[in-house]
UniProtKB/TrEMBL annotation:
Family statement: Belongs to the AHA1 family.
Organism: Nocardioides hankookensis
Pfam families given in the database record: AHSA1
Residue span, Activator of Hsp90 ATPase homologue 1/2-like C-terminal domain: 25-137
This protein's name: SRPBCC family protein
Domain of life where this protein originates: Bacteria
InterPro entries reported in the protein's UniProt record: ASHA1/2-like_C (IPR013538), START-like_dom_sf (IPR023393)
C-alpha cells in the first residue's frame, strides 16, 4: 500500500472522471468476493442488506461511525469482472464502477467514478484512495484500523487531485 496518491482525473463533458487502480496477488473470484459479499465488504467499507436480484440494496458505511443506511442501485453486474452501482450520498447519487482483470496470478481492480463534480475531486479522490487501501489491507492481512484518513489521505492528497484539474 502506498500513501502516495495514485488516482487520476480527466475531465469529460465538464465533469471529472476519477480512476484508481489496485492490484492483488489473488484469483479474480477472491477479489470479486471482497467487493460484492456483504461480510467481506464489512471488513473495509460497509455492509449491504436486501436482495441484489431486485437491482437495489441498502448499504451502510461501517468505516464511518454513525453513517446512515443509504440506497444502492446495481446498474450492471457481470461476475467476476464488472460491478457498476449508483450509491446514494445524501440527496445525490454517485456512479461507481469496478472492473476486474486477472493475469499471471495478479488481479487488477480498476475503480472509476465517472461523473464526479470537479469541485469535490480534492476530497473524494483521497477518500477513495483511503477506502481502496483499506480493501488491500483487509485482503492481505494488514491492519485496516491502522489506516488513518486524517493523517495520510486528507488533506495530504488534496493538492494531487486539485492540480490534475487545473493543469
Amino acid at each position: 500500500m502506498s500513501k502516495e496518491p495514485t488516482g487520476t482525473l480527466e475531465t469529460v463533458g465538464g465533469r471529472a472522471r476519477l480512476t484508481i487502480v489496485r492490484e492483488f496477488r489473488a484469483p479474480i473470484e477472491d477479489v470479486w468476493a471482497a467487493v460484492t459479499e456483504s461480510d467481506r465488504l464489512g471488513r473495509w467499507i460497509g455492509t449491504w442488506r436486501g436482495d441484489p436480484e431486485t437491482g437495489e440494496v441498502l448499504f451502510t458505511m461501517t468505516a464511518e461511525e454513525g453513517a446512515p443506511e443509504d440506497g444502492m442501485r446495481i446498474r450492471e453486474c457481470v461476475p467476476p469482472r464488472r460491478l457498476a452501482v449508483s450509491t446514494q450520498v445524501g440527496d445525490d447519487w454517485w456512479d461507481l464502477d469496478l472492473d476486474l482483470a486477472e493475469a499471471d496470478g495478479v488481479t487488477t481492480l480498476t475503480f472509476t467514478q465517472p461523473d464526479l463534480d470537479p469541485t469535490m475531486a480534492d476530497s473524494v479522490g483521497p477518500g477513495w484512495e483511503y477506502y481502496l487501501d483499506r480493501l488491500v489491507a483487509a485482503e492481505t492481512g494488514g491492519d485496516v484500523a491502522a489506516i488513518d484518513f486524517d493523517r495520510d489521505y486528507y488533506p495530504a492528497m488534496a493538492e494531487h487531485y486539485r492540480s490534475q484539474l487545473s493543469g
